[in-house]
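Researcher: I'd like a candidate sequence for this fold, 118 residues long. If you have to choose between options at a position, lean toward the conservative one.
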C-alpha cells in the first residue's frame, strides 16, 4: 500500500567500540591451529572465542544464518589458508577439519539459542 507517511526503520546499534577486541582474526587463527593439531586446551579456547563472537554478533542484531556466514567468513579469511568450512563432506577434505568445524558449529548453535546466555 502506498503511503505518504514516512516510516522509520529501527536499525540496531552496534556494540563496537575502538576498545572492542577483534575476535574474527583470533577465531580464524585458532581454528587453523586446531585443524593442524587438535588439543584439549586449543579446543577450549576455540569454544570460548566462538561463544564471545556469537554473543557479540547476536547482540548486534544478526540473525542466526548471518552469524553462521560471519563465522565461516572469519575462518576462511583469517584461517591461514584453510578452506571455507562446511558440514557437508565429499570424502576428500581433511577429517580433522570436519570434526573441528562440527565442534565450532555446535558451539555456535548452543550459544545463539541458549536463553540463559542473554
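Model: Candidate sequence:
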Amino acid at each position: 500500500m502506498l503511503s505518504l507517511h514516512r516510516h522509520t526503520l529501527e536499525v540496531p546499534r552496534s556494540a563496537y567500540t575502538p576498545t572492542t577486541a577483534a575476535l574474527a582474526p583470533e577465531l580464524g587463527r585458532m581454528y587453523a591451529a586446531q585443524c593442524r593439531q587438535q588439543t584439549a586446551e586449543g579446543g577450549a579456547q576455540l569454544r570460548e572465542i566462538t561463544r564471545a563472537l556469537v554473543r557479540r554478533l547476536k547482540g548486534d542484531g544478526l540473525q542466526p544464518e548471518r552469524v553462521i556466514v560471519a563465522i565461516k567468513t572469519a575462518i576462511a579469511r583469517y584461517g591461514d589458508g584453510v578452506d571455507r568450512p562446511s558440514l557437508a563432506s565429499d570424502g576428500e577434505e581433511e577429517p580433522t577439519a570436519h570434526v573441528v568445524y562440527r565442534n565450532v558449529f555446535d558451539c555456535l548453535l548452543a550459544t545463539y539459542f541458549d536463553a540463559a546466555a542473554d
